[in-house]
Amino acid sequence: MGTAASFLFKGMGKSSSKLNRNDLQELESTTRFEARQLQKWYRDFIQDCPDGHMTKEVFEKIYGQFFPVGNPSPFVDYIFNVFDANKDGVVTFKEFITAISVTTHGSIDEKLNFGCRKLLEILRLQMTLDIDVFRNLYLQ
Ligand SMILES: [Ca+2]
């Protein structure tokens, strides 16, 4: 297929786990992937993340393969934050596939909206942290 997701999961093996009917129907309607693709990627996802969510460490391990030289951490942090839609510190299969769908199948507007919205969230968080540091250093 040649998408980023298929490249990420290449060679990660098979599992007997399947998406339940409701999740499968939801993902078929909210992404542009077919049921068969979704089931295959879910099996691969569950094999690496048996509890159903991807930690930043696993995410970094996967993305680290794309950066054999240098430090991938800043990029991984940014991408992980983009994928972790609800900011609970883990990426679920739904979050992962939704992000992959927008970045591979979305229109230019959808991609820009998705990327800009996430970037603004990260910048807002960074500004809040910077203001807190400034306040702690100079205003006390
Ligand atoms: Ca999450």
From TrEMBL:
Gene3D superfamilies: EF-hand. InterPro entries: EF-hand-dom_pair (IPR011992), EF_Hand_1_Ca_BS (IPR018247), EF_hand_dom (IPR002048), Recoverin (IPR028846). It comes from the Eukaryota. Coiled coil: none annotated. Signal peptide: none annotated. Keywords: Calcium, Metal-binding, Repeat. PANTHER family: CALCIUM BINDING PROTEINS (PTHR23055), EF-HAND DOMAIN-CONTAINING PROTEIN (PTHR23055:SF172). This is Calcium-binding protein NCS-1-like.
